[in-house]
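Working notes for the structural subgroup meeting. M.R. asked for a predicted model of this chain before we commit to crystallization trials. I am recording the input and output together here so anyone reviewing the notebook later can reproduce the run.

Input as submitted:
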Amino acid sequence: MMSPVLRRGGGAPKPPRTPDAMMTLTEHLGELRTRIVRCALAITIGAVAVLAFYDPILRFLRQPYTDLCAARGAEFCGAVAPDGTAMLYNLGPLEGFGLRMRIGMYGGLLLALPVVMWQIWRFVVPALKANEKKYAIPFITSSIALFGLGCLLAYLTLEKALEFLISWAGQDVQATFQVSKYVSLVTLMAFAFGIGFQFPILLVFLQLIDVLQPQQLMSVWRYAIVGIVVAAAVITPSGDPISMTALAVPMLVLYFASAGIGFLVQRRRRRRAEQPAAA
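Returned structure, recorded in token form:
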């Protein structure tokens, strides 16, 4: 009688796959395709939801410009509607449709961000150790919170940034904004600030997995300041000093905060290692 250990043909049975088992290239590609499809589906659903509220969202995006025009007058920022709303212009028959699709895509990506972050994490998880996988929920939550905080900061500083940009165009230059370019500026500013605020998340993660030490961060703090200021200048779409300062200062604070978290983690690990020795 054939041994139950052996399969037909003399081959040994394949061991059951565990979460930490190595995946083949084909399996990796299949997993990547699944994650991409789920992200695309979440973004599509979010885009449909945003398009259903297109007009209120457009008024919300235009509000900083409207507030600036109300404060400085029509002679400063161009044409203003009788109700005080700042006027934006379409310069082509297809621009309105393209703008609606662009707002839907950007808004859908923003709404689907939790799903996208979770799918990215689930794709990366097999390459992590067991003690590193427990950071999934805290990191996703903090990433979304910091991204939202960055978007909010970009929106709050947009009025001052627009005032600087318009005033530097010259007294004889009349401001007339194309609606698609204005919306692109607002969304790019929001995403630039949101991505900039992800920087400390990466630093904390590298410290938790012992790739980076807080002492290393503090030893190069002078270079870090210069690098953060340069990075803020590069990723800020408007290029104005107000937006660059509004992005660079929080990034510097978050840099030192991430080093502080690293020191706390080190202290906790040291106490945990000393407990068996004391016992």
